[in-house]
């Protein structure tokens, strides 16, 4: 597999930036906050339409952030690094634990395009008919639909914060015409917001989506630059199978060398070479069982 070198790396700086007034304007009414969240989501929609945005990688990074937010809601201490470990250190037959289950749910929710069948893998505790019923609860504009789904799930299953937030993001994605779910609400909401109803919940969701859409755009811009650099250095790699390895790194939040399509020693050398070239980062700080990502 070959990668074309971008003709003008500086062109990546033209990824549209979120207007400053979206974050600087203080919204006091639901009409104001709805206007700002609509502007933020519209801008994110434009960014997601860019071919240079590594969509799968962006979704995985957002899923990790959402998982970390949900774990924090539950009062557990695990953060993003620990959640990566909880998933990547699993061996066949191991139980991931509560934090690992949360991380796996979010990862599975973004693995495939939005569908009831795909959600069955992310939320195995619920029947497909129940999931479909909750998603059908949402009516009206996109954020209102998401808020209604969130409230419906938490009313029927009060301790199901993770499924509720996943399904609310699914409802939002469907209403916006996105084929894939982008984890947004969990990172913007506060724990107390999950107890709200009606206009109060809609206001909280609008407010949450302003901040999370802004952060998603910033993350997308960062990943565009990092992905472009990785594609630029890819032709320098001589290892057989390096092209496929680079392609995998462009779509995954993190990978162990053993997961790459190379012999173990060659995979470790390739990862170290990419770190030396500034194309990927070692994400753990450990000497053993390292994880690498763009």
Tell me about this structure.
The chain has 294 residues and is mainly alpha-helical. Helices cover 60% and strands 1% of the residues. It has helices at residues 20-24, 30-48, 55-73, 80-88, 97-111, 116-122, 128-137, 142-156, 161-176, 185-188, 198-233, 242-249, 264-276, and strands at residues 281-282, 292-293. Helix 4 (80-88) packs across helix 5.
Strand content: under 5%
Count of DSSP H/I helices: 13
- Which series of helices and strands comes N to C? HHHHHHHHHHHHHEE
How many E-type strands?
Answer: 2
Describe the structure in brief.
This protein is an all-alpha fold and 294 residues long.
Describe the protein's topology.
Blueprint: H1 20-24, H2 30-48, H3 55-73, H4 80-88, H5 97-111, H6 116-122, H7 128-137, H8 142-156, H9 161-176, H10 185-188, H11 198-233, H12 242-249, H13 264-276, E1 281-282, E2 292-293
Antiparallel strand pairs: 1-2
What descriptors fit this protein?
60% helix; 294 residues; single chain; 13 helices; mainly alpha; two-stranded antiparallel ribbon
């Amino acid at each position: 597999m070959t990668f074309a070198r971008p003709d003008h790396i500086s062109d990546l700086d033209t990824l549209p930036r979120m207007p400053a007034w979206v974050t600087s304007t203080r919204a006091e009414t639901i009409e104001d906050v709805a206007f700002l969240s609509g502007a933020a989501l519209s801008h994110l929609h434009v960014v997601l339409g860019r071919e240079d945005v590594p969509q799968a990688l962006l979704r995985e990074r957002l899923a990790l952030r959402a998982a970390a937010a949900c774990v924090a809601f539950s009062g557990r201490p695990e953060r993003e690094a620990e959640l990566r470990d909880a998933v990547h250190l699993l061996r066949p037959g191991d139980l991931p634990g509560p934090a690992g289950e949360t991380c796996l749910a979010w990862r599975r929710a973004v693995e495939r395009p939005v569908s009831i069948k795909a959600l069955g893998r992310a939320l195995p505790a619920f029947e497909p008919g129940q999931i479909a019923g909750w998603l059908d609860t949402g009516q009206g504009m996109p954020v209102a639909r998401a808020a209604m789904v969130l409230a419906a799930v938490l009313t029927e299953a009060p301790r199901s914060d993770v499924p509720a937030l996943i399904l609310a993001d699914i409802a939002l994605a469907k209403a916006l015409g996105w084929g894939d779910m982008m984890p947004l609400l969990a990172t913007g909401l506060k724990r107390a917001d999950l107890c709200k109803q009606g206009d109060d919940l809609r206001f909280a969701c609008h407010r949450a989506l302003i901040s999370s859409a802004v952060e998603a755009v910033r993350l997308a811009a960062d990943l565009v630059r990092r992905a472009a650099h990785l594609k630029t250095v890819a032709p320098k790699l001589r290892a057989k199978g390096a092209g496929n390895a680079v392609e995998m790194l462009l779509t995954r939040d993190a990978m162990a060398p053993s997961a790459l399509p190379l012999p173990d020693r060659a995979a470790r050398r390739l990862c170290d070479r990419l770190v030396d070239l500034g194309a990927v980062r070692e994400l753990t700080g450990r000497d053993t069982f390292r994880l690498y990502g763009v």
